[in-house]
Write a structure and sequence with these properties.
By secondary structure, the protein is an all-alpha fold. The longest helix has 23 residues. It is elongated and about 45 Å long.
């Protein structure tokens, strides 16, 4: 998710996106253990996206 896309999201949308990405990350971990993951870099990218969303959410809550 791009920085510009994150800025356009509302607080509720950010929270929903974080929940969805956390579920995806959970599934990626299981796929990694079972050697079923096709693109291991998805794990790192998902973690970074979650961090970006949390940062944006924090900024919106403080504003």
């Amino acid at each position: 998710m791009k920085k510009q896309e994150i800025k356009k999201l509302s607080k509720d949308q950010i929270v929903k996106s974080i929940d969805k990405l956390k579920k995806d990350l959970f599934n990626f971990r299981f796929q990694k253990i079972n050697s079923q993951i096709t693109n291991p870099s998805q794990i790192g990218e998902t973690k970074k996206t979650i961090a970006r969303l949390k940062t944006a959410l924090r900024g919106k809550l403080n504003a």
